[in-house]
Design a protein that fits this description.
Length: about 220
């Protein structure tokens, strides 16, 4: 299998891309596709508002065009799924958004899904995506850490909040499975799963796992008309 899966971090924070890259190591195999993580240099430090999400669409699509010849699939590694539909019009290859992939994966593991967001401002974007997917009845709640993408690197602040928010989704909202609502949380997945005794989905891992299946099984992307 020679085609690569290109995982694009739409923000410009290289440390976030590195964390995503490390989280994908369990999915790498000698006989599997190359998994290459790229940083969108034109992006903001974190995709934290709708304006941020909108402004990355054009450069994201240009990056996909530049790499289309060597890619078998693309993954947009931001929980807002910015530019997902425009990207699907840009290439004939499968394009997966981590929010869509993470939520769909979570629903295979539990009836009620909780989302751990970074900032309160992200929640309305998530609600719009959830409505578009038609899965409102499966979402137990969406709670924010109150920390931006860059602040997630400070584990002394981020880890206690992850446990607190995850426990609230479990105990107060009835969540049976959690989805991490930012690619920058990837390194916390296993630890949070153990701390809360709940399945926890890293959406970047979920999306890349789906991309690997698509390449191995020869799935085609639907033609965008």
């Amino acid at each position: 299998m020679t085609e690569a899966i290109l995982v694009i971090n739409p923000n410009s924070t290289a440390a976030c891309t590195e964390a995503i890259d490390q989280a994908l190591d369990p999915l790498r195999a000698p006989d599997g596709p190359e998994i290459d993580c790229l940083t969108l240099a034109e992006g903001p430090p974190g995709v934290e508002t709708q304006r941020h999400a909108d402004q990355v669409i054009a450069p994201l699509c240009r990056l996909i065009e530049r790499h289309d010849n060597r890619a078998g699939a693309f993954v947009i590694a931001c929980f807002s799924d910015p530019g997902l539909h425009a990207a699907r019009e840009t290439t004939a290859k499968p394009v997966l958004g981590i929010a869509e992939s993470g939520l769909l994966t979570a629903m295979t593991l539990g009836e009620r899904v909780g989302i751990v967001s970074i900032l309160g401002a992200a929640i309305p974007r998530h609600r719009r995506l959830i409505r578009a997917l038609g899965i409102e009845s499966r979402i137990a709640g969406d709670l924010a850490l109150g920390l931006g993408v860059v602040a997630l690197a400070d584990e002394a602040r981020s880890w206690p909040r992850l446990v607190e928010v995850g426990a609230a989704l479990r105990d107060e909202h009835g969540a049976e499975v959690l989805v991490l609502g930012c690619a920058g949380m990837a390194r916390f997945r296993r630890r949070l799963e153990d701390a809360l005794d709940l399945p926890v989905i890293d959406p970047s891992q979920a999306a890349v796992g789906m991309a690997i299946s698509a390449l191995r099984l020869g799935y085609r992307a639907a033609v965008q008309r």
